[in-house]
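Re: Re: ligand-bound prediction request (bumping)

Still looking for help on this. To restate: I need the protein modeled with 5,10-Methenyltetrahydrofolate bound, output as structure tokens. Inputs repeated here so nobody has to scroll up.
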Amino acid sequence: MPATLISGVAIAATIRDEISIEVSRLKDQHSLIPGLVTILVGDDPASQSYVRAKNATARVLGIHSQQITLPAHTSESELLQLVHTCNRDSVFHGILVQLPLPSHINEANILFAISPEKDVDGFHPVNVGKLMLGEPCLLPCTPQGILELLERTNISTSGAEVVIVGRSNIVGKPIANLMLQKRPGGNATVTVCHTRTRDMAFHTRRADILIVAAGVANMIKAEHIKEGAVVIDVGVNRIGQTAGGKAILAGDVDFADVVNKAGSITPVPGGVGPMTITMLMKNTVQAAKQAVGLL
Ligand SMILES: Nc1nc(=O)c2c([nH]1)NC[C@@H]1CN(c3ccc(C(=O)N[C@@H](CCC(=O)O)C(=O)O)cc3)C=[N+]21
Ligand SMILES: [Mg+2]
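Reply:
Sorry for the wait, this slipped through. Here it is.
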């Protein structure tokens, strides 16, 4: 029997409806319009399309959103100045600096300059530290999206063997921490694999829930998974172009190879990606409410 498809598109749509209702309520009852500024440096086509999608989603939900695009040669100090300006601008409750930044800019210097209250990516060390401690904070969007996917498909993590492939600051490390925590959505036994892991399949085959965020197209095959496992594919790899010039996407999981062995699986596209953008919207609303003392 083929795996059950976990539709990020459908679950994201449900959550977006909830957010849209909340945004209307904030406007009507508190004259509060959540605001998001996205900052894009350079002209990488993938980054352009992600930032465009973020702004479009914000507008549909009634969130005020502005995109600021700067040339690739922008200096670190110019970008820092813009971040400081956005920190002071009360119209914006959330600030997102699209990554990766050009190589002459130190990403940490920029991310650490964003006010933690406006850090809707959850990348600032204050939020990273709070996450690790289990304190309330702005959670990084992709890990938060994965928690929502599991929760809304009634997949329990408590006592489960969760194996994560990838140790990035954006996905691997935070999702590992969240899954470890002593609360609903956590309580898992967590293993983190990476490029130096000696026998990847040994670990991944033990997973009840396998989360793959390695950035390597189609690396996970049937031999890597246990029969009936839940497979969450975070990879978004551009592996080619259609005749019409549209990017062809592949996950980190070889979907065709795995689909008859997994119990359930997220597709790419249409799995984790739409959830990531939706959690950015959720974080922007949370930051706005916190800014005016509603949380
Ligand atoms: N400061 C910052 N924050 C981020 O959250 C951030 C970032 N930088 N840099 C790049 C990564 C990547 N990322 C994605 C978001 C949505 C999809 C997404 O919606 N994907 C669609 C397909 C989109 C397409 O067609 O390209 C899907 O999987 O269905 C993918 C990737 C956010 N990132
Ligand atoms: Mg694939």
